[in-house]
Design brief:
Distance between the termini: 33 Å
Number of domains: 2
Radius of gyration: 18 Å
Structural class: alpha/beta
Strand content: 5-15%
Number of helices: 13
Bound molecules: S-adenosylmethionine
Largest sheet: 7 strands, mixed
Length: 325
């Protein structure tokens, strides 16, 4: 589906409800095209101002910046390019690299992840807005990274968005957003936490209401956690989930042809894949059922076809969405 870039003229099913077209805040000063090579470099560089796993957020921002430049974009993120540019300052070795060139196609592991990441972003945009429209007045982004949804989506009045991530990532994010004089389109709260540790008290202290319906999103996170870490974090979310609450995260294909298996087989991907601990893996649907969630699996291939970006992959991976009744 092609998106008409004019405000108010987006035609997709959930987009009609509220995806703004950059709220007139498109960042025009940062024009340099950056290829997904940046994503690869950001994901694999030695320790610096962002922890290794935090730098993966820069990789996703790079993909969102590229997608936002396309005429047939599935979403528009007007801040993604600013994050990428700020990342280039942190990592000066990117200057003069292929990352400076205009309009190159993604390559390597970036090419593998690009179609997945854009379908994922669009799907979660729709999922979150639909949950908010259905009465989930609290949105919790577990490992928000450089996600700018609090700024770029048109939230129903009164929605509160909580962004949780590691302190270094949130500091970097806020600095860039301040430079862009970004204004949230909701009530936004950031919480610097390590999601492997207890974090419920921090969320409650920040004003989260456990008796109110919430939508939780763990986008691009669980693979970086072990089974026990992912289970612990989701158990905390489950304990804080009132009836009507919704939840979503990726469902990895277990057939050996999935995205993660193919990434592991790629030369040069080792430093990224070494950070993967597997999350709940194929046990996620059972885990959710055991913890009081009604779970549904949404195929990435089906969504991609619906969005007009059919995937050239045999994988059965996709997204889990779950509801608390
Ligand atoms: C691939 S990025 C995804 C970010 C964002 N959800 C998106 O899709 O753009 C993974 C994110 O998980 C965060 N993360 C990984 N482990 C974490 C932990 N233990 N506690 C908090 N955040 C964590 C990283 O800092 C990073 O922002």
């Amino acid at each position: 589906m092609l998106l008409d870039p004019r405000p108010g003229s987006l035609t997709g099913p959930s987009y009609a409800q509220g995806l703004t077209y950059a709220q007139g805040r498109r960042v025009r000063s940062l024009r340099t095209a950056v290829t997904v090579v940046v994503a690869e470099v950001a994901m694999t560089m030695s320790p610096g101002p962002l922890p290794g796993v935090g730098r993966t957020a820069l990789g996703v921002a790079c993909i969102r910046a590229m997608e936002s430049r396309r005429a047939d974009r599935l979403f528009d993120d007007p801040y993604a390019q600013a994050f990428v540019e700020a990342g280039r300052v942190l990592f000066p070795e990117l200057h003069g690299s292929r990352a400076d060139s205009q309009g190159r196609e993604p390559s390597g592991i970036g090419a593998l992840f690009y179609p997945h990441a854009v379908v994922r972003t669009r799907f979660y945009d729709e999922f979150l807005l639909s949950a908010a429209a259905a009465g989930c007045g609290q949105v919790v982004l577990l490992a928000a990274g450089l996600d700018a949804r609090a700024f770029r989506l048109s939230w129903p009045k009164g929605v509160r968005v909580f962004e949780l991530d590691l302190p270094e990532v949130l500091r970097f994010k806020q600095r860039v957003l301040d430079e862009q004089t970004a204004t949230p389109a909701c009530e936004r709260t950031t919480l610097a936490v390590d999601l492997r540790e207890p974090w419920a008290e921090d969320l409650l202290a920040a004003g989260f209401q456990p008796s109110a319906a919430t939508v939780w999103l763990a986008e691009g996170l669980l693979v970086y956690l072990s089974y026990d870490e992912a289970s612990g974090m989701l158990a905390t979310a489950s304990e804080l989930s009132a009836p009507g609450t919704q939840l979503s995260f990726e469902h990895a294909s277990q057939d050996g042809n999935g995205l993660l298996a193919r990434a592991r087989a790629m030369p040069g991907a080792g430093r990224l894949t070494a950070m993967w601990k597997g999350g709940l893996g194929g046990r996620a649907p059972h885990w959710l059922a055991d913890h009081g969630w009604q779970c549904h699996i949404q195929s990435r291939s089906d969504l991609a076809a619906r969005y007009g970006r059919p995937l050239d992959e045999p994988s059965s991976g996709g997204f889990l969405t779950a509801k608390r009744t």
